[in-house]
Design a protein that fits this description.
- The protein is built from 6 helices and no strands.
- With 143 residues, it is mainly α.
Length: 143
């Protein structure tokens, strides 16, 4: 039944790997600001929550709660995937050693700083909401 919601064990693994990838990508920017370090911290918290969801085993009486938790995790993963698709093109230029073109690296850093700032703020808020929801649902199931 859980498979009907599109979130199987492999999906949890993929979600955790995607969170780790984004954290690593943000960490490779040697000039990352406090805002990005906060985002990396939020993603670490989310990764922990997703790992707890992955390892969670419940009885039949809590099946509905588990379905709700998996749906929340699926929505979270969609948010992460959408953000990753948007920022992926910047990563070669934001790394500390950059790409082969310093001019392109500089341009992409400027574009990242100005064009993606609102996107990052929205993503941070979305991640905080998803993480809080997942943690609340986990606490409810564990009671």
């Amino acid at each position: 039944m859980a498979g009907a919601f599109g979130f199987l064990g492999g999906d949890f693994t993929a979600a955790v790997e995607l969170v780790s990838t984004i954290v690593n990508a943000l960490g490779q920017n040697s000039e990352s600001s406090e805002e990005y370090r906060e985002l990396a911290h939020q993603l670490d918290s989310l990764e922990l929550a997703l790992l707890l969801v992955k390892r969670l085993h419940v009885g039949d009486s809590q099946h509905n709660e588990l379905v709700g938790l998996r749906q929340a995790a699926t929505q979270c993963c969609q948010t992460i995937d959408n953000f990753w698709q948007k920022i992926q093109k910047y990563q070669p230029n934001l790394r500390s050693n950059g790409s082969s073109s310093r001019l392109k690296d500089s341009w992409m850093k400027i574009k990242w700083a100005f064009c993606q700032k609102d996107e990052v703020a929205k993503f941070k808020a979305d991640i905080a909401g998803h993480t809080g929801c997942i943690q609340m649902l986990l606490a409810t199931i564990q009671m």
